[in-house]
């Protein structure tokens, strides 16, 4: 019987891996776009309008990431419940606190302290999000959510370091497009966003793997 049922088991395992990879990619794209756009708006001289716009983008991204989790576990019916909205608020607050602490301390020390704090806040948010969706507590709660939190915080540290400590631009030769001429420019911050996206994917892949294979 075990031999007969083995294809079904392998099929379910493969399906979970595919679903987990797709969910991780979706969550990473949402988080990278939201954090990247927010960071680009507020990392330099900011005004009240840019701060509000960045806050809106960050909160919408947090909500969309919650939607990805709900779609993955087939629990989209209760996304607007207060405890699930609260999870998105915690995530948004965590990113804001991270940047404020880094700017308050400044330099490499600011990045180190803020990144450590962010790792703790993200770990807390992951635990709260599991509870908000009624997911069973993972074994080793203090360790399992911490790994995605540390990975995501490491990507955030890279993003901040490229904005503060690098200042280079790579430009392509002028490209003729019809009657106009365009130039493609890549700055260090773009690389930082890409690295953050990679860390975000790794973090969410591990996270969804644990959710789908408890």
From TrEMBL:
The chain crosses the membrane at residues 21-39, 51-73, 85-105, 111-128, 149-166, 178-203. The keyword Transmembrane helix applies. Keywords: Membrane, Transmembrane, Transmembrane helix. This is Uncharacterized protein.
């Amino acid at each position: 019987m075990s031999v007969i049922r083995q294809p079904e088991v392998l099929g379910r395992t493969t399906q979970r891996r595919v679903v987990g990879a797709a969910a991780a990619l979706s969550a990473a794209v949402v988080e990278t776009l939201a954090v990247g756009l927010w960071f680009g708006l507020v990392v330099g001289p900011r005004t009240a309008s840019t701060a509000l716009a960045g806050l809106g983008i960050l909160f919408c991204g947090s909500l969309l990431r919650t939607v990805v989790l709900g779609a993955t576990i087939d629990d989209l019916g209760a996304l607007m419940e207060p405890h699930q909205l609260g999870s998105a608020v915690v995530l948004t607050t965590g990113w804001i606190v991270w940047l404020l602490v880094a700017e308050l301390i400044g330099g490499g020390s600011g990045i180190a302290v803020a990144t450590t704090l962010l790792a703790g806040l993200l770990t807390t948010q992951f635990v709260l999000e599991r509870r908000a969706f009624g997911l069973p507590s993972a074994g080793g709660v203090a360790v399992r959510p911490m790994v995605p939190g540390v990975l995501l915080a490491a990507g955030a540290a890279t993003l901040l370091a490229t904005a503060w400590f690098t200042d280079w631009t790579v430009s392509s030769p002028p490209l003729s497009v019809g009657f106009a001429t365009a130039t493609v420019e890549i700055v260090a911050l773009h690389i930082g966003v890409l690295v953050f996206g990679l860390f975000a994917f790794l973090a969410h892949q591990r996270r969804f793997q644990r959710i789908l294979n408890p």
